[in-house]
Amino acid sequence: MxxxxxxxxxxxxxxxxxxxxxxxTDPLPYAPIANPLPDTMDQLYRDSVNLSxxxxxxxxxxxxxxxxxxxYYVGSSASEFTVINIENSNIAGTGTLQSxxxxxxxxxxxxxYHKAQLISGGDIKYELLSPEISGTVxxxxxxxxxxxxYKVIVNSDTSSPFIINDNVYGMVKDALIKYFGIARCGxxxxxxxxxxxxxxxxxxxxxxxxxxxxxxxxxxxxVSVLGLCATALKDRDTDHYAFNxxxxxxxxxxxxxxxxxxxxxxxxxxxxxxxxxxxSAMKTELGNMDMIMAGGDGRNIRIWL
Length: 305
Ligand SMILES: [Zn+2]
Fold this sequence. Notes:
Elements: H1 3-20, H2 43-50, E1 56-57, E2 70-75, E3 80-85, E4 91-96, E5 98-106, E6 109-113, E7 124-129, E8 133-141, E9 148-154, E10 157-158, E11 162-164, H3 168-183, H4 216-232, H5 256-274, H6 289-292
Antiparallel strand pairs: 1-2, 2-8, 3-4, 3-9, 5-8, 6-7, 9-10, 9-11
Helix pairs in contact: 4-5
The chain binds zinc ion.
């Protein structure tokens, strides 16, 4: 294959990537509210899109049919709004806005780094600054709308698209639980990364806030809340994923929140077993916290394999 063919193949691959969007190819259970930009798209482009801030602020998760549907507008004046059905471009409703009497102002400053982990303060790759959006905050309530996809227009400003659907919070739950898949440690079939830290004194569980530490407070709290939700809201705990969140065609037949709870619960039970049932000897905090937080008291377990 010559250079030109290689180049053609590269661009074909690139365009296919844009067509199919995500590396995850199974259907997303939250597709109607998913970020329309593919994960594979260059971050600079994705960040650039975020600089375009609408003055019309809707709930981007969407609204349930019978909910009170509040939205805001930020500007110098506003009296009326129009709701457009995106599927057919028809006007789906109109209404009026009231001033809240409050002023607001906001601006996005996005900084991208090459190696923030390795270089203190990070070495800046690019920095973007949005226009400053300021004005009076007006509020409005959307009229009764049938299931569908809509946008709101106030003056010459348009909102993000949003959906009306009774399952919006089910979709939010499906989207959020994938974060736990990213945070999974050990051989727990993360959809996002390979197995990791297999030689930890207590393997498994979840990493903390996007780093590689394992922290008992965050794991314990997450296990409690996920377990409570799985138990108290059994009818809402759906089975949309296999254990690996990239797989939705063939699931594991276990409700997703309950299954994720077990990842954290196993970590705590393994720690208990490893300490032979002596709770005060349990090792649940793993990673070298002292290096990150100057003045650490040395109790942290320096296991980092
Ligand atoms: Zn890990």
